[in-house]
Amino acid sequence: AGFTVAIVGRPNVGKSTFFNRLLEQRKAIVDDQSGVTRDRQYGVCEWNGKTFNVIDTGGFVPQSEDVFEREIKKQVLIAVEEANAIIFMADAATGITDLDEAMADVLRRTSKTVFMAVNKVDNPERLLEATEFYSLGFDNIFFISSMTGSGTGEILDAVTELI
Ligand code: GDP
Ligand code: MG
């Protein structure tokens, strides 16, 4: 029971790094290799005196590009089912990819609140480049760095406003 937020996004965008920051202790596995978080991780976050559940959706090791995309879409739909709100994470360092577009297509159709988190905005130059993510069409967009913690408070403020 309680309010649940799922973090979704293609592999390597920094979902687990963000998740660990929310939990303020290392729970999920962060790795430079894509698709390393195999299972879903569940945690509880406290912010602004409110408590909510967080799901770090993981990955799965791709066999082929096709299977990869299908499986990721499936994971997104499962997360949407389970959650009250979604944090859709992307990576400012790589920019928009086909998989981001595919996931955005799925997420635009949900009635649940989607917060777009453009991660790896570690410096002002990145912020400039990251504005391309507005084109995915999400109104609730946050530019964050899970590494430095920049912007992570703002997204949590927005999440807790729903509770
Ligand atoms: P996941 O596959 O989406 O769970 O991504 P991870 O959390 O495992 O992170 C993938 C890689 O991105 C790791 O090398 C992280 O250290 C790195 N990373 C995560 N967040 C940031 C960030 O804000 N800035 C930068 N520069 N790297 C990050
Ligand atoms: Mg992960």
Describe the structure.
- With about 160 residues, the protein is α/β, with parallel strands linked by helices.
- It has one domain: Rossmann fold (3-Layer(aba) Sandwich), CATH 3.40.50.300.
- About 35% of the residues lie in helices and about 20% in strands.
- It contains five helices and six strands.
- It has a six-stranded mixed β-sheet, with helices on both faces.
- Helix 2 packs parallel to helix 3.
- The chain is globular.
- The chain starts with a strand and ends with a helix.
- The mean pLDDT is about 85.
Q: Top keywords for this entry?
A:
single chain; 163 residues; alpha/beta; Rossmann fold; six-stranded mixed beta sheet; 5 helices; 22% strand; globular; binds guanosine-5'-diphosphate; binds magnesium ion
How would you concisely characterize the structure shown here?
The chain is α/β, with parallel strands linked by helices. Helix content is 33%, strand content 22%. It has one domain: 3-Layer(aba) Sandwich (Rossmann fold), CATH 3.40.50.300.
CATH topology (level 3) name: Rossmann fold
Q: Could you name the ranges where pLDDT drops below 50 across 5 or more consecutive residues?
A: none
How many structural units, i.e. domains?
A: 1
Q: How much helix is in the residues?
A: 25-40%
Taken as a percent bin, the fraction of beta residues is 15-25%
Number of helices: 5
